[in-house]
Amino acid sequence: MSAIDIDWDRDGRQAGYLHLPNSTNVSAWQDLRVPVYLFRNGEGPCTLLLGGNHGDEYEGITGLSALAHSLDPAGITGSVIIVPALNLPAVLAGARLSPVDGRNLNREFPGDPRGSLTQRLAALVVSELVPRADAVYDIHSGGRSLLFAPCTLVHEQADGELTRRCLAAADSFGAPFTVVIREPHAGQMLDDVVERSGRLMVSSELGGSAAISPGTMGLTRDGLLRLLAHLGHLSAADLPPAAPGRRLVVPGPQAYLHADDLGTYEPMVEIGRSVAEGTVIGRLHFVDRADRAPQPLRAPLGGILLCVHGQGLVRRDDVIAVIAVPYGE
Ligand code: CA
Asked: Rounded to the nearest 10 degrees, what angle do helices 58-68 and 214-230 cross at?
């Protein structure tokens, strides 16, 4: 059995599986099957759309599952590969990390073909999917612990022209914000593999709190069509219009507010709003301490409140907020 039962040269719609052998206490010769779809209509650009890299980020998982059952292969140019639930064990567990080996798929790239299930999954993406694509869109949201103002994400590249193309593709999705970011763990992410190969890479943070809303779902549905048009797969006619977004940058560690104590988080500013440096964006409540008053939480920078903690309970060292500032203005 080949690792992916898709005929990459055949036109039309195919629904198959990415196969990963696995051996567990309850299933010695398991064949883990991760759904993969190919839409192909002749020669042309190839785009890889991924959801469920983290298993509790639902806009990509649900939006790509919907697209895989609605896209008309005769209406596109080139090839679109869709994997709605990439880290399937994590998705089925409603968890960020894989319950099989406890690993975080997006900290395992470029993967290891002889490693654990998650490491082998990363290696399969790198060897079998990324080389077929001209562009990769890995759809993330905040998961249970973070909640983002809907945004697409790009990294600045050494090649300024590639950065410009990535920004234009990210803008085309039509989220309220396009954000330039460099995560501390960027070298372990899928993005790094794709970017170093010179391919177009776009990611996103479309919501969070391990939930989904009509607003973020609608943005995902329409944004995917707009991105596919931008990348040359769909005609631009009849596309859902997008409001102009803003380009922001997360300037560095100073943009992050972390918790010093465990408490419940009282949000006081909506995500996506402007704040001045020092603005009280919320309070932390020490519900186990009769002697301790609530602690005001202040914006570490002036800018846009891009992200807040996604759950009511905050633990020491958690991210409480992330501020982004205008990019290239
Ligand atoms: Ca994520």
From this structure: 60
The predicted-structure confidence for 181-231, as pLDDT tens digits, reads as follows 988 888 999 999 999 999 999 999 999 999 999 999 999 999 999 999 999
Q: How far apart are CA 50 and CA 81, in angstroms?
A: 8
CA distance 240 to 223: 8
Contacts of 248 (CB under 8 A, 6+ apart): 151, 177, 178, 179, 180, 303, 304, 306, 324, 325, 326, 327
Q: Give distance in angstroms: CA of 150 to centre of ligand 1.
A: 13
Domain match, 22 and 44 both: yes
Q: How far is the CA of 309 from the centre of ligand 1 (A)?
A: 14
pLDDT at 275 over 60: yes
- What number is the average pLDDT over the span 260-285? 98
Do residues 106 and 133 share a domain? yes
Please give the distance, rounded to the nearest whole angstrom, from the Cα atom of residue 139 to the centre of ligand 1. 8
Quote the pTM value: 0.97
Domain of residue 58 covers 12-249
pLDDT tens digits for range 94-140: 999 999 999 999 999 999 999 999 999 999 999 999 999 999 999 99
Q: Give the Å distance between the CA of 58 and the centre of ligand 1.
A: 10
Q: Within this chain, do residues 243 and 287 fall inside the same structural domain, yes or no?
A: no
238 CA from centroid of ligand 1 (Å): 31
Cα of 288 from ligand 1 centre, angstroms: 31
Q: Report how far ligand 1's centroid is from the alpha carbon of 126 (Å).
A: 18
